[in-house]
Amino acid sequence: SYCGSLWLASLRCAVQIGKLVGDNENAAKYSKVLEKGKVAFEEKLWN
Length: 47
Prior knowledge:
Oligomer: single chain
Largest sheet: none
């Protein structure tokens, strides 16, 4: 779960950096991956 949370944090950073540098295409792509990851993280690790 620790590594998973680091992965989600990294994706969140990638989204923000993409927005800052104007790379909206990759920001949107990573945002979708982040949302899927958050759902999976909560389903598997929280009851």
